[in-house]
Structures are given as structure tokens and as C-alpha cells.
């Protein structure tokens, strides 16, 4: 027997050695082929054939085969075509000879730097999502006595009680043993009405003597005065479902080294892009790519990071790293980076278990993203993940990608202005023939679009990343640059939530950079047309730069359209929710006529009820409605506000705490409240997405013309008075 075991071990070792040798041979062969593909020089016709062949082959794979291996193949082709393009750019198209000016060289260096940045983001992005982990919740022990104690922290500063109240009521109703959970409202506003509310509902009202370190300091102060083994953190407008702890704590119990379980940030109100462009629930929103795909990719590499809310953390891990990080304004990601560097694990459960309010206005949205960008730049400067001790390679690359992403301001501005440098200043940004440039550049652009559409399609549609980045680019350049120079600069700012927009208006202040760039692009097109008429015109190069400018005009026009704010008067957001309901006249007894139907939407202020017929209702009638998500009976008083063929709109009266709590549960707290909101069937179709963006770009062009005319009229009036 020992001899046989020794023979088996020898054979196993030899097989392992052969497998390793074969793997090295395969990798060496792939590397050799890749180098040949990248560096082999081709004529214009040869490069056209290579580019067209790559795109056709990629399109065939994309359309005909659904296997994940096709996604990997598309990634390889995309990277090869991109690196081939950049190799050609570096070796063939830089304006280095005596016939080029300093302007040519400066502009060319800027564009090449932007393209190298884009390559880094492309490759890191592919790495990040190469194998998204779809983690499932783990079962808790059968004995609730073995479940850990949980402290629920709800930090607040200047938000009104109307925003915070639903979150507190929902947190108090989470499924967890009463003796093992405490809800704390961390009130940095130190408000008496909050103290009275907490006393009424059974939450703990916690204040401190100062507001040092903002949200991070608020949480750290509470950590010192609480004892729960686990800490659940919710922003004050993020309302948890009752099942949040049931779905997250099992992962913590199963593995004592897990320091963080993060769930998605889900929003039940439209963000400025969705509201102003009327895209709410029609297309993936800006955050869906991160919470729908990238965090699952991070989870595969052990790099899920804390997002500040809708998360569960282990107290011992927090205490080991000194609490929530206070050195940067993105304290959440910085905290998880510190925990990962100490060997703690993290997990992501991609099931929405809380929902919150999106930013109402574009200006507020930009302010929030400026803070995120500044904070990520601060972390990159202070605790660079590529240099920080204790991290695994996958964690280093995922964190680096997340941080580098927020440096897109300058590259995006370069991409928007590079064709203008040639059209307006005759700067040789790329020293090459227009047809050759197109032959190298277009295959790389087509393959990147096709590959990302396949991988990211359910989470972000093609060309929308350019719109999002264009809207923010100008505003994040200074904060990220200053943070790299001095990471201590900048302070935490609270994102306003729960406001209204009482009228439609165009936010000209926010839109000034887009208006300027749009106007310069129009001028560039006009100059390009004039240059086309000259006998010495480089027609191919002019057409290439004018085509590039047309695309930029589409993106800038869409940015202008986003800056056209749409009215939002309702203080309470109506949410499409179908819940069985009963309706009767106010004060009716149990034998009175009852209308059976369901809600079509619900809010904390009212509801729309369908399937009328039995009750003879008039506007202003006092009624009672019972919402029956799980056949629980509680009659809520309401007034009829509108009658039409679709049903009746009701406005709730002032509800007592029991009624408010039940209504919050019906709308937000049900375990399945948000499970059907994600429309995974609305996949990306790049041409359709481009047409959609172009339609918004056209509307933005009309806004530009209208704004220009208004400015000229105002100028003339000013000069004549």
C-alpha cells in the first residue's frame, strides 16, 4: 500500500508538472500571437481588411453564441485591436519631426495621454468583471439564540424629519429578535423634534457635542457608546426592507473573517438624468452598472467595498482599523480598503434590501459626484492601493480602477476638444492620413462598444457613459487635481434630499461649460466646411475630424438636455406598487359595501386605487382604505382627490404612528418590495442607444440656439438702454 501511494503521488506530481508546462506553452503561444497581431505593419488596404475582419468575426460570435467564453474572446479581440491602435499611434503618428510646431506636440501629447488613460480603464474594467460573483444569502442558525446582536445606525444632519421618519420606522420593523437589535438615530443636528419622535417610536436618539469629521465622526462617536456585535448603517433616506438582516447576517455568521456585507443602493425616485430625459425605469440608471455588475466583479476578487449605506459591518473589524476613516471625504471606500489591508474579507449580496431618494437636481447630483471624485483622489494619494501593504493583486487592481475612474475629467475634455484643435488651429494632433487613422481607430472603437454592450448591456446602454462623464467632467477636474496635490483639501458636504422643483427651467449656470463647448464645436464645423473648399484641403483628415465633432455635438447636446430641469412638485414620490386593497366609506361598519381592487401606485401621502364600480364616490368624500400585502387589516383614513376612468386618487389624512409604520411597511418594508424593479430584459442595442442619445442631442441643439438668441437679444437691449 505505501508503494502504491508513492506511485500515485509520483504520477500526480508528474501530471501536475505536465499541466503546468502545457499551460506555459499555451500562454507563450498566445503571447507570441498577440505580439504579432499588435506590431505587424500593414498597408491601408491590409489594415482595413484586418479591422473589418475583426469586427465581423466579433459580431458573428456575439450574435450566434451565448457562452461566457464568447465574452472572453471578445475581450481578447477588443484589447488586441486597442493595443494595436495605440502601438501604431506611438510609433507612426506622433508629430516629432522638424515640420511640426510646439502646439502640434502639446496637443498630440495630451490626446495620447487621454488614450492611454482610456486603455488603462478599459483593461482594468475587463479585469474587474471577468467573472462576476453572484453570491447567495446564507442561512442563519436555526436557534435565534445564536444570532449576533445588531446596532442599526441612521446618521442625519440637516435632513427634515419627514425624510428620516420612514427609515426609522422601517428599521424598527426588521425581522430580528427584539432583545438583539437596537435602532440609533445619530442626530448631528441635535433637534428636539427628533428626540421626541425617537422617544415615541422606541429608537435611541444620539447626539454629540460637535460635528467633527461629519458622517464618519458621527458614526465613530456612536461606536464608542454602543455594544452590538454587528453594525447596520443606513443613510437617513435609505429605507430598509424587513428582510435586510435575514439576508446579510448569515454571511457574517458563516465566516468570522467577513467584515462587510454590502447590498445595492436602490433608488425609488428618478435621478436628474432619468427625470429630465423621462427615462425612469425605461433604461438603466447611472448607478446600475456599479451596483448591478461591478460590485459582483469586485466580490470575485475579494474587493467589495463599503458604500456608506445599506451595509452590515463587524464591530471588531471597524475597531481594529480605528473606526470609519476620517482622512478623506469618501470615508466608506477608505474604511473597507483599510479592512482589506488587515486581511478582513467582504461580501456583496446583489439583492436590493433598501431604497432611497436620488438627488433631485442636476446641481445637487454634480455636487455629490464632486465629493466622490475628490475622496477617491484623496485615497489614491494617501493610501494608494498599488503600494498599500496587505492587499491581494485582485484587490489592488479593483480599487485602482475605482479610483482612476474619477480622473476622467481631463481625458474627456481632451476628447471633446481634440478635433477642434485641428479644425480651428490646424494643430496636427495625429500626424497621419485620415483614412489610415480611421482604419486603425474604428475597429478598436467598434470592438470596445460591442464587447461592453454584451457584458454591460443589462446595466448600462451604449454611449451613455460618454453623456454621464461629459456632464461631470469640467466640474471634477479641479477637485481631483487639488486632492492629488494636497489630500487634506476639501470638506464633506451633505447631499440634499427630499426637495421639490416647482417649475421647469434651464440651469444655465450648470450648463455654461456645455454651452461653450457646443458653440466652439459649431464654429469648428463651419471652419471645417470652409477649409474643405480650399484647393489644398486634406479632405480625408477634415472629414474625420468633422465626423468626430458631430459625435461630440451629440454628446454635448445630450448634456444640455439634461440641464433642462423638469418640474417635480410632489414632496412624496409616487411608487408603482400593485397591492390588494379594500375601500369603504369613512365610518362604515363591517357590513357596509366594500370595493375590492388594488393600488396602481402608493406614496406616504396617498394612493391610486383601481377597479371601482360598487361605491358611488364624489371628489372630497371621506373614505377608508385597507392595504393587504399579506392579508393584514388596518383601515387608513383618506380623502378622494380625483376621479377618472382609471380609478380614484386618494390623499391620506394625518396618520398616527401605528398607521405610518404600517404604510411604510407596505410601500418600502416588504421583502419583495424591489425585486421586480430591475428590468434585465431591456438589453442594450448599440444603434438604438446611439439614436436615443442623438435625439436628446438634437433637443440640446435647440436649447443652444434658443439660449444664444436670448443672450443676443439681452445684449442688444443692454447696449440700446
From TrEMBL:
High-level lineage: Bacteria, Pseudomonadati, Pseudomonadota, Gammaproteobacteria, Chromatiales
Name of the protein this chain belongs to: Cellulose synthase catalytic subunit [UDP-forming]
Cofactors: Mg(2+)
Biological role stated in the UniProt entry: Catalytic subunit of cellulose synthase. It polymerizes uridine 5'-diphosphate glucose to cellulose.
Alphabetical list of InterPro entries matching this protein: Cell_synth_A, Glyco_trans_2-like, Glycosyltr_2/OpgH_subfam, Nucleotide-diphossugar_trans, PilZ_domain
Pathway: Glycan metabolism; bacterial cellulose biosynthesis
Native source organism of the sequence: Oceanococcus atlanticus
EC number per UniProt: 2.4.1.12
Recorded superkingdom: Bacteria
Short name of any one Pfam family annotated for the protein: Glycos_transf_2
Topology class, membrane: Multi-pass membrane protein
Amino acid at each position: 500500500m505505501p508503494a502504491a501511494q508513492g506511485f500515485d503521488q509520483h504520477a500526480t506530481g508528474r501530471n501536475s508538472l505536465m499541466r503546468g508546462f502545457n499551460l506555459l506553452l499555451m500562454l507563450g503561444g498566445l503571447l507570441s500571437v498577440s505580439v504579432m497581431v499588435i506590431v505587424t505593419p500593414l498597408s491601408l488596404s491590409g489594415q482595413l481588411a484586418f479591422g473589418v475582419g475583426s469586427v465581423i468575426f466579433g459580431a458573428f460570435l456575439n450574435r450566434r453564441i451565448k457562452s461566457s467564453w464568447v465574452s472572453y474572446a471578445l475581450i481578447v479581440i477588443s484589447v488586441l485591436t486597442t493595443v494595436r491602435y495605440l502601438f501604431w499611434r506611438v510609433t507612426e503618428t506622433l508629430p516629432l519631426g522638424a515640420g511640426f510646431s510646439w502646439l502640434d506636440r502639446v496637443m498630440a501629447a495630451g490626446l495620447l495621454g487621454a488614450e492611454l488613460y482610456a486603455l488603462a480603464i478599459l483593461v482594468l474594467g475587463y479585469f474587474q468583471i471577468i467573472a462576476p460573483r453572484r453570491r447567495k444569502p446564507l442561512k442563519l442558525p436555526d436557534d435565534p439564540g445564536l444570532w449576533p446582536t445588531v446596532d442599526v445606525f441612521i446618521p442625519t444632519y440637516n435632513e427634515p424629519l419627514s425624510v428620516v421618519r420612514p427609515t426609522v420606522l422601517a428599521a424598527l420593523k426588521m425581522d430580528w429578535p427584539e432583545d438583539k437589535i437596537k435602532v440609533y438615530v445619530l442626530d448631528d443636528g441635535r433637534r428636539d423634534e427628533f428626540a421626541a419622535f425617537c422617544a415615541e417610536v422606541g429608537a435611541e436618539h444620539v447626539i454629540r457635542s460637535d460635528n467633527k469629521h461629519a458622517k464618519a465622526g458621527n458614526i465613530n462617536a456612536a461606536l464608542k457608546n454602543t455594544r452590538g456585535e454587528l453594525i447596520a448603517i443606513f443613510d437617513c433616506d435609505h429605507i430598509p426592507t424587513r428582510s435586510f438582516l435575514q439576508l446579510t447576517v448569515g454571511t457574517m455568521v458563516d465566516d468570522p473573517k467577513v467584515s462587510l456585507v454590502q447590498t445595492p443602493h436602490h433608488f425609488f425616485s428618478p435621478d436628474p438624468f432619468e427625470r429630465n430625459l423621462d427615462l425612469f425605469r425605461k433604461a438603466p440608471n447611472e448607478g446600475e452598472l456599479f451596483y448591478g455588475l461591478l460590485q459582483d466583479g469586485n466580490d470575485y476578487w475579494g474587493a467589495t467595498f463599503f458604500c456608506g449605506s445599506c451595509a452590515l459591518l463587524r464591530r471588531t473589524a471597524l475597531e481594529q482599523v480605528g473606526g470609519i476613516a476620517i482622512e478623506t471625504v469618501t470615508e466608506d471606500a477608505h474604511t473597507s480598503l483599510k479592512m482589506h489591508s488587515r486581511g478582513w474579507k467582504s461580501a456583496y449580496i446583489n439583492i436590493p434590501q433598501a431604497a432611497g431618494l436620488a438627488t433631485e437636481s442636476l446641481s445637487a447630483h454634480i455636487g455629490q459626484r464632486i465629493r466622490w471624485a475628490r475622496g477617491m483622489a484623496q485615497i489614491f494619494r494617501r493610501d494608494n492601493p498599488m503600494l498599500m501593504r496587505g492587499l491581494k493583486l485582485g484587490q489592488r487592481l479593483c480599487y485602482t480602477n475605482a479610483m482612476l475612474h474619477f480622473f476622467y475629467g481631463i481625458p474627456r475634455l481632451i476628447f471633446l476638444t481634440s478635433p477642434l484643435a485641428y479644425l480651428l488651429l490646424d494643430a496636427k494632433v495625429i500626424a497621419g492620413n485620415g483614412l489610415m487613422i480611421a482604419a486603425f481607430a474604428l475597429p478598436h472603437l467598434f470592438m470596445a462598444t460591442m464587447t461592453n454592450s454584451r457584458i454591460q448591456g443589462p446595466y448600462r446602454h451604449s454611449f451613455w457613459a460618454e453623456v454621464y462623464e461629459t456632464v461631470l467632467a469640467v466640474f471634477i477636474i479641479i477637485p481631483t487635481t487639488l486632492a492629488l496635490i494636497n489630500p487634506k483639501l476639501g470638506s464633506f458636504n451633505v447631499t440634499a434630499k427630499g426637495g421639490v422643483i416647482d417649475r421647469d427651467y434651464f440651469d444655465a449656470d450648470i450648463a455654461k461649460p456645455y454651452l461653450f463647448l457646443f458653440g466652439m464645436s459649431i464654429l469648428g464645423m463651419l471652419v471645417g466646411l470652409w477649409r474643405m473648399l480650399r484647393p489644398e484641403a486634406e479632405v480625408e483628415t477634415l472629414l474625420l475630424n468633422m465626423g468626430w465633432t458631430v459625435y461630440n455635438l451629440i454628446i454635448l447636446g445630450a448634456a444640455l438636455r439634461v440641464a433642462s430641469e423638469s418640474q417635480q412638485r410632489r414632496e412624496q414620490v409616487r411608487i408603482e406598487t400593485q397591492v390588494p386593497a379594500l375601500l369603504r366609506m369613512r365610518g362604515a361598519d363591517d357590513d357596509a359595501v366594500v370595493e375590492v381592487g388594488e393600488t396602481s401606485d402608493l406614496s406616504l401621502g396617498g394612493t391610486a386605487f383601481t377597479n371601482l364600480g360598487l361605491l358611488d364616490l364624489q371628489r372630497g368624500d371621506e373614505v377608508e382604505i385597507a392595504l393587504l400585502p399579506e392579508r393584514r387589516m388596518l383601515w387608513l383614513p383618506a380623502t378622494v382627490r380625483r376621479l377618472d376612468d382609471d380609478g380614484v386618487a386618494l390623499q391620506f389624512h394625518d396618520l398616527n404612528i401605528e398607521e405610518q409604520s404600517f404604510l411604510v411597511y407596505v410601500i418600502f418594508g416588504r421583502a419583495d418590495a424591489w425585486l421586480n424593479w430591475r428590468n434585465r430584459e431591456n438589453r442594450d442595442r448599440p444603434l438604438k442607444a446611439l439614436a436615443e442619445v442623438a435625439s436628446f442631442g438634437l433637443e440640446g441643439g435647440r436649447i443652444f440656439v434658443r439660449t444664444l438668441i436670448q443672450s443676443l437679444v439681452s445684449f442688444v437691449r443692454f447696449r440700446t438702454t
